[in-house]
Amino acid sequence: RLEKYMEQSLLKADGVIAISEFTGTEIETLFHYPGEKIFVTHLGIEECFRKIEDEEYLKNTLRKYGIKYPYILYTGTIEPRKNVAQLVRVFNICAKDLPHYLVLAGRKGWKYENIEKEIEISPFKQRICQLGYVPDEDLPFIYNGADIFVFPSLYEGFGFPPLEAMRCGLPVLSSDRASLKEVLKDGVFYFNPFEETDKDIAEKIINILSDGVGREKKIEKAVQIAESYTWKKTAEKTLDIYKRIVNGK
């Protein structure tokens, strides 16, 4: 039904605004929509996602959620598309050599049950903390308390969570699928979830946590990239697209 409505909308549209080049290509390929009528406008990141200096407030927020240090963080919907089951398996390997907990922040989504089973059979399930939905006012503190952010998603039209983590000064290890390399650029470490084994990815996490110099250089670059995504730029570019469509350009 959604595909039918999408096709009907595209037939009436004078133009389409896509949130990434990847999404634009998907629209052009799947719906045979003219590429010259697709305009890409990246989204913005809220300014609340930043490095937090108030250590006491940070600790109080983490204590409210029962989060223990140190921890590896994932945020986003808990569903198969996000590849959280693989993250749990990777954590099982990391946990043998690291003291870290795994914190999963996000609401339960489609086919969540399969991921729950992966958590239940984990030999380190006592070190896996599921927060559920976290409101925006607390989320920056959850980012700030983590040692690393891991985003194994298989399909993203844009990719808010890793950008939020980058803006908070976290080292990020991300899947290289869909729009992620386009949006995150060279501000994060990457892995291929289809070609690299769970052990390979676990080794990357351990290496990132141990390589202070390489990690700090990547973080510095990441903050610059994340701060370049502003809603002001999104609004200005969107307005320009409206004008171009109205004027037939």
User: What's the number of extended β-strand segments?
Assistant: 8
Name the helix and strand elements from N-terminus to C-terminus, one letter apiece.
Answer: HEHEHEHEHEHEHEHEHHH
What spatial form do the alpha-carbon principal axes imply?
Answer: globular
**Could you describe the largest sheet, including whether it forms a barrel?**
6 strands, parallel
Strand percent estimate: 5-15%
Radius of gyration: 19 Å
| Overall mean confidence score, pLDDT | 95
Structural class per helix/strand content? Answer: alpha/beta
Distance between the termini: 33 Å
Number of helices: 11
Strands ordered across the widest β-sheet = 5-4-3-6-7-8
Measured as a percent range, the helix fraction is 40-55%
Q: Which spans of ≥5 residues are poorly predicted at pLDDT below 50?
A: none
Give the key terms.
two-stranded parallel sheet, six-stranded parallel β-sheet, single chain, alpha/beta, 249 residues
Show the helix and strand layout.
Blueprint: H1 2-12, E1 16-18, H2 21-31, E2 38-40, H3 55-64, E3 71-75, H4 84-94, E4 101-105, H5 112-120, E5 128-132, H6 139-145, E6 148-151, H7 160-167, E7 172-175, H8 180-184, E8 189-191, H9 198-210, H10 212-227, H11 231-246
Parallel strand pairs: 1-2, 3-4, 3-6, 4-5, 6-7, 7-8
Helix pairs in contact: 3-6, 4-5, 4-9, 7-10
